[in-house]
Amino acid sequence: MTRMMSRPRTRGAVLVAGGLSAVLALGACSSDDDGDGGSADGGSTDCADFESYGDLSGKTVTVYAGIVAPEDQPYMDSYKPFEDCTGATIDYTADKNFEQQILVQAQAGNAPDIAIVPQPGLLQQLVATGAAVEPPAEVGANVDEFWGEDWKAYGTVDGTFYAAPSGASVKSLVWYSPTQFADNGWEVPTTLDELQTLTDDIVAKGDNKPWCAGISSGEATGWPITDWMEDMMLRVGDPDVYDQWVAHDIPFNSEVPTEALDAVGNYLKNPDYVNGGIGDVSSIATTTFQDGGLPILDGACSLHRMASFYASNFPEGTDVSEDGEVFAFYLPGKTADDHPVLGAGEFNLAFADRPEVQAFQTYLSTDLWANNKASASSEATGGGWISANKGLDPANLVNPIDKLSVDLLQDPNTVFRFDGSDQMPAAVGSNAFWKQATAWITGQSTKDTLDKIEASWP
Amino acid sequence: MEIADKLLSMVYALVAFAVVLGLILFLASRYERRGGRSIAWWFIAPTLLLLAVALVYPALRTIWYSFFDASGASFVGLDNYGTVFTQSDQLVVLRNTVLWTLVTPFVATAVGMLYAILVDGAKGEGVAKALVFLPMAISLVGASIIWKFMYDFRDPAAGTEKNPVEQIGLLNQVILWLGGDAKNFLLDSPGNTFWLILVMIWIQAGFAMTILSASIKAIPSEMVEAARLDGVHGFKMFRFITLPSIRPSVVVVLTTIAIACLKVFDIVRTMTGGQFNTSVVANEFYTQTFSAANQGLGAALAVVLFILVVPIIVYNVRQLRASEGR
């Protein structure tokens, strides 16, 4: 009985399958024709600047990044003039696991046309896969014109220039409350000694502990301390020693790094100085970095060293401005003349050299794009994006913190250095340095900490 | 537009599935005429193929990689395994995994069983059971975030008269109300691992309770009555009637939770990120492979995890066979 039944059923299934595959073939045909008809109407954009790129109608450039919603919208908006004027389509995709995925893609040979890479260390790994290609000469010329040697060096691997900088962030900032400072007659410090005096003054006043911090960040717990230490490396040492330390030309546990970490400990491991509004020294380890600076709003803490992007962590409606509820000042150098700035940023690395990719890569390296992107960010997300591009017009920025950051980056006295842990090998920069920094804040000695990081260097 | 695209790719997937299925059925029907066992192979073939591609090959590859250095370039023999079993940080990882696997299954099963026996036949049994079972419905990440708030710590000593500190964490607030000192639950090792384990127990006790409650209800009432007539009550009833009757279910529950604990990743990653000496093998494997770019060590950890899970699975399968054989 069952035998008799099974045959017709089998045939039926085959028929259904055959029919469906015919539909599949039809579907494949029809999905082809929507690529072209793109929007050739220039609209309000002035296309004169894009003429040199030629007609790229029907061409597509894929962009892959780690910047997800809502910060991705300004990127797409800033590509719009290029798309409208050249006819090319820019396909932007983003993924929070970008840093892991892009390596897998490059190794497997299906990399995007352009990747927005947030770390020089990762840039080197990607170039080492052999999949990355050099940009056209115009990109190099633009970087020479709009950035400086220091930024160009971070986009260079083994003497070959690969990637132009994109966005940037400034890390050498201390968040404070301008109202609290004004009420108590405190001044923004201009040297490291003044910062020390200010800290002691706040302790003497006795209303609150001066500093607050939080380093918890899931697996990356500890990174805010690595930033602290890098900032102190630039101040206790100098930018040259910093470069040697990052490149491992001097051991991680040598004299200057030891002094630098102790200088951090002077603030963060001093029970009289921390952790305003949160707890004792060890509470730094379990407080998320997002929460670390919030006690400033209650007046429970006065100082919080954190990068420019921290502005978005304050609750909506907070007045972030020079004489508002909260603002930031430049973490001072050893003297008022020293002006080292620690920061980070992204780079546009290409994996294809088709004409449309090169044209788009060139557009991204211009001051035109930087200004388009800044205006798009101001409109879509209220700012929060800057570039070290010297052609960036501060008038396109709406956020006071962005203006402060751009002023710092464009200041002729500034010596810029890129976040060191982002350049170290992954075993150190995204593992041992974080872990040992966390162990250090919960009680491990400076010597043990630096010895263990040195031992982990591959 | 995006939805249309996605629907279209779903249609493709369904079509591909139908084509493959149709092909197999067609081929099988051709062979069926010749009879014999060969037809069975046609039905097993897709499974075998997928297992080979998606399980056997990657497993062998992983074992192979575990004998190589960080970048997978040069052969280092057993060095990675040496690191796993000698380096102080890695030993802490192993210790934690052992703690998880020993503590969680027994405590969760005990709690679940006790609860199942207590509410068995009581008024409002359904509601009482639902309350314990509910955590099972929450994802591990969600549960971890909830408990992270429960454990949250603010040191009262950090406040001044003008700026007193207010607790966010429920547990610490309760401790303060009772006159104790606030505690930073997630910081001090090895106690912090137990606070993480508590989250898993909270989730798994519901699972244990459901399965065990069902098998307690399946105990023949004649047996229970006969025991009663013989004068068996209370603990003796549990020891000599209930427990032997539900033994196969207890083994399944214990081994299932044990395997879940060996592979635990979400809770550790969400609550501490493996910091403060709370990392476990699965978390360390991920960290080493993807963050520290140490493929060799990551692969070795994966192999260690695999070796640890195998005996439990073997025991589980043998128990299952034994109970079916009866």
UniProtKB/TrEMBL annotation, chain A:
Top-level division of the source organism's lineage: Bacteria
Annotated signal sequence range: 1-27
InterPro entries: Bact_solute-bd_prot1 (IPR050490)
Keywords: Signal, Transport
Family note: Belongs to the bacterial solute-binding protein 1 family.
Name by which UniProt lists this protein: Carbohydrate ABC transporter substrate-binding protein (CUT1 family)
Automatic annotation (TrEMBL), chain B:
Transmembrane region(s): 6-27, 39-60, 98-118, 130-150, 194-214, 246-265, 297-317
Keywords: Cell membrane, Membrane, Transmembrane, Transmembrane helix, Transport
Location in or out of the cell: Cell membrane
Domain of life: Bacteria
Keyword match Transport: yes
CDD domains (alphabetical): TM_PBP2 (cd06261)
Gene3D superfamilies registered for this protein in UniProt: MetI-like (1.10.3720.10)
Pfam families cross-referenced by the UniProt entry: BPD_transp_1 (PF00528)
Membrane topology: Multi-pass membrane protein
All residue ranges annotated as the ABC transmembrane type-1 domain in the record: 94-318
A Gene Ontology cellular-component term: plasma membrane
GO biological process terms on file: transmembrane transport
Similarity comment: family membership: Belongs to the binding-protein-dependent transport system permease family.
Protein name: Carbohydrate ABC transporter membrane protein 1 (CUT1 family)
